Amino acid sequence: MGKDSTGCFGCFRFLLPSNAPEVAPDMSPGSWGPPAEVDLVPSMARPRVGSWASPVPSMPAPWGTWSTPQDDRHTVLTVSGLDEPVKVTKTPTSKNMATAQPGRLKEIGWYNRDGFKSPTQGFLVEQLLASPGSLPQGLSPAECKLQNEKRVDQVLKTLDTIPNATTTERLAKVPRRLLTQRGDTGQRLRRGILKGATIVFITTGYEGKRFIYERAHALGVRSVLIDSPTSWSKRLVDEGVAVKFIPIDMDQTSREVVKSCLAAIEACERDPAVGKVDGVCTFAELSVPLTARLAELLGLPGPTPEATDQARDKYATRGALTRYGLPTPPNCEITCE
User: Fold this and answer.
1) What are phi and psi of 51, to 5 degrees?
2) For residues 185 and 149, is the Cβ–Cβ distance under 8 A?
3) Any transmembrane segments, and where (predicted)?
4) Does domain 198-321 bear CATH number 2.40.50.100?
5) Following DSSP, what letter does each residue of 24-65 receive, concatenated?
């Protein structure tokens, strides 16, 4: 590469004046400038879970046949009825391709037993060449909100016809798109489903948490409270905030407490004042592992015991973070006093 106009950048030679000296670009190491600074950020190797592969084509043609023409045979198709005349040229690129393309074109009516034909304007042609074409515009935000409100009203009317259904049965009748939508409309639907649900609260905590159970009552939740016999929360039944209070001796061993709570919850289904339990929960940190085990034994939604055990143990929590490649500070377990 010298000063010859046919060398590098010769195609831009016309931009220079005719009397300009022959100048070649400076490609010497000195023209590179100072090396870029690179901040070395330590990274942790993360496990590669699963694998990904390109989807297997559903067409019978082999790979690469779209880009390797082998002969000049071609067929011209004229699409009528569009604003501008369009000609579609089919050029088979191999023997396999010539037999594969008709199968693809059958779907949109460009090929039949008699061979190729010129298709008329229709949905498939329009969507292929000018999508979205004449399809109507989507709903405006205001129209979408109005439509969702009407659908929510219909769903709530349907749920009113099955007052004895469990929350799970009620959820099964609600389209997920409505159930997960944001805003006041979605919240109104979710609260409508929650109304009438029976939820067991495992230990009620200190009296300052009274507002939780009052709010649950205001939302239509039928609360069952499990706590020690001397708990302040037993008054909530007399006040109409809860439907049942179940005293459990919390001085028992943890295993015995699990058995006692499980038996008490199962007995609720035979109590006409309570009925089938829809869920168990707690707002007391010490009772989270217990609640997780009860949910698992009863087949109700809830975190797994393994997850709650790790969350309650800082060393186990940091060990889990390390196993899954998440950053965590250096730590060690102290096993002696």
Assistant:
1) -150, 165
2) yes
3) none
4) no
5) ----SGGGG-SPPP------------S---PPPPSSSSPTTG
Q: Which pLDDT does position 68 carry in this prediction?
A: 42
Q: In degrees rounded to 5, what are phi and psi of residue 171?
A: -65, -35
Number of H helices, E strands in the chain: 12, 8
Query: What is the amino acid identity at position 26?
Result: D
Instruction: For strands 198-202 and 279-281, give the pairing.
Output: parallel
Got the DSSP string for 122-168? Answer: -HHHHHHHHTTTTPPPPPPHHHHHHHHHHHHHHHHHHHHT-TTS-HH
Let me know the angle formed at the C-alpha of 206 by 269 and 277, rounded to the nearest 5 degrees.
15
- Cα separation, 291 vs 203, whole angstroms: 9
Q: How many CB atoms lie within 10 A of CB 121?
A: 16
For the segment 82-106, what is each residue's pLDDT rounded down to a tens digit?
555 555 555 544 444 445 455 656 6
- The amino acid sitting at 282 is T
pTM higher than the cut 0.70: no
- The residue behind tokens 């168990």 is 280
Strand-strand pairing, 222-227 and 279-281? unpaired
pLDDT at 327: 92
Nearest to 142 by CA among 190, 187, 185, 189: 185
Residue of 270, 223, 262 whose CA lies nearest to 242: 223
